Amino acid sequence: MNSTDLANPSTTLDTLIVGAGITGLSLAQALHQDRKRGRQSGQILLTESQDRVGGRIVTQSQDGFLWEEGPNSCLPTPEFLKLAVDVGLKDELVLADRRLPRYVYLQGELIPVPMSPPAFFQTKLLSDWGKLRAIAGALGFVPPAIGATLSDQGGEETVAQFFGRHLGQEVLERLVQPFVSGVYAGDPNQLSASAAFGKVTQMTDVGGGLAAGAILSLTKKGKGKKTVDPSLPKVQRGELASFRQGLEALPKAIAAQLGDGIKLGWHLIQIKPTEHQTYLAEFSTPAGPVRIETRSMVLTTPSYVSADLLANLAPIASQGLAKIPYPGVACVVLAYPESAFKINPSGFGNLIPRGQGIRTLGTIWSSSLFPHRAPAGWRLLLNFIGGTTDPAIAQLSQAEIVQIVHQDLQKTLLKQDIPPKVLAVHLWKRAIPQYPLGHHQNLAQIHQGLQAWPGLFLCGNYTDGVAVGDCIRRGQECAADVVKYLDRR
To answer: Considering the chain, what is the average pLDDT of its residues?
Structure first.
């Protein structure tokens, strides 16, 4: 499709989706399934500026190693499982053993994260006082959220303020802060608690304390529990999912189903409204300039890309999108012979609180999570470094980053200074969107800025969850919104 005849409505698309990351692919696949079921979703096109699909999902292999350079795994949510089944990957699914321990490196020692009440009382991660403080807070003995600082923040708490108030400083520093580093590569002193941990903060609204809120939430969830789809693979709480050939198998399988409905190397330059209540998208493509007219358009691009595209059309929304920060994070993929380790690296991996003299945020023990990720006699480690609290990482060379990570691993996992097999150093200069204080108000501004442009949708991980499962859910929800809009037209 090299051009569109604007005078001929039959050549106008029903939906143009920009960005073939997992969000855009999930959205396009949902619309594709809608058409197969006989609904009139119309003609759909998915465009991507890169020469590959998948966005941040990057799987690589070399010399018998298979690794991820972005997301390493996914919670096996019903949406994820249904999508995997629909695109023919049911038999390719692999699940990590939920009994594998998670570790936190504290004061020179790797300590398992307590995953049960007995383990909580026995853990060395918290002092006796820290445990009592956490229990009291969970039961609702919590000081009120007051003070001049909170007033200056409009009554909104940071992650550090919320968890410090509810569970105490030790839980914050030794459990919450490493988790925030691992998921967001963020700073708990900057992230909004209600935006980054919405389900947790809502528990306190429901029950007054975290424990009571959790019980009440589970009770409500149980009453409204959906029937389990028997066609989906059976999974257990705590498991993580991937595929035999890595996580990138999912976007590739979706793309194979969409076929010619995807165009790679198409760079969107400009969006213009037309007199027909449609949108005209102008692309730079390998075959030359292309113009596409569409009745609805969804931008699944990162917020900073969407901000540039909407600068002239919807300046208020553009300003809000441009405010969302993305810190840089490096994924450093290293392999070592089994003899180099001072412990048996069997587990999910380890996170590292700040203040331990180690710059690495955390390490995923990839070859113990999923089968066939490393040759016999080797262990594969995915290390993450940088983020909001360490922006200087983005200025270092690959060799310097490898040296820092290797030195950190000598403290945490290795018993001798054996040089690593360096498989990859992938610096994501803008890695994970942050949800700082005022995030909800900013999203409201973005939404308000789009009200003048019906049929133009935004769908990205900068709104309400950065995990792969969140992106899939959000893409499917947006597909339903697009169908409703087209039905109204």
So the answer is: 93
pLDDT of res. 2: 44
**217 or 350, which is more confident:** 350
Residue 256 has pLDDT above 70, yes or no: yes
Q: Which residues contact 5 (CB under 8 A, 6 or more apart)?
A: 11
Integer Cα distance of 319 and 313 in angstroms: 12
Check residue 11 and give its pLDDT: 73
Q: At what angle do helices 439-449 and 315-322 cross, to 10 degrees?
A: 150
Q: Is 246 left (phi over 0), alpha (psi -120 to 50) or beta?
A: left
CA distance 384 to 388: 12
> In angstroms, rounded to a whole number, what is the distance separating the alpha carbons of residues 175 and 172?
6
CB 361 within 8 A of CB 309: no
Q: How many residues does the chain have?
A: 489
Instruction: Find out whether 468 and 74 touch, Cβ atoms under 8 Å.
Output: yes
Q: What is the mean pLDDT of residues 200-226?
A: 72
What pLDDT, on a 0 to 100 scale, did the predictor assign at position 89?
97
> Own/partner pairs for 115-123, CB < 8 Å, 24+ apart?
115/238
Whether 210 shows a pLDDT value over 90: the answer reads no
Each residue of 368-385: pLDDT tens digit? 999 999 999 999 999 999
Which 3-state string (H, E, C) describes the chain? CCCCCCCCHHHCEEEEEECCEHHHHHHHHHHHHHHHCCCCCCCEEEEECCCCCECCCCEEEECCEEEECCCCCECCCHHHHHHHHHCCCHHHEEEECCCCCEEEEECCEEEECCCCHHHHHHCCCCCHHHHHHHHHHHCCCCCCCCCHHHHHCCCCCEHHHHHHHHHCHHHHHHHHHHHHHHHHCCCCCCEEHHHHCHHHHHHHHHHCCHHHHHHHHHHHHHHCCCCCCCCCCCCCCCCEEEECCCCCHHHHHHHHHHHHHEEECCEEEEEEECCCCCEEEEEEECCEEEEEEEEEEEECCCHHHHHHHCCCCCHHHHHHHHCCCCCCEEEEEEEEEHHHECCCCCCCEEECCCCCCCCEEEEECHHHHCCCCCCCCEEEEEEEEECCCCHHHHHCCHHHHHHHHHHHHHHHCECCCCCCEEEEEEEECCCCCCCECCHHHHHHHHHHHCCCCCCEEECCCCCCCCCHHHHHHHHHHHHHHHHHHHHHC
In angstroms, the CA 442 to CA 1 distance is 37
Q: What percentage of the chain carries pLDDT values higher than 70?
A: 93
Q: Is the pTM of this model over 0.70?
A: yes
Q: At residue 152, does pLDDT exceed 70?
A: yes
Sign of CA dihedral 405, 407, 409, 414: positive
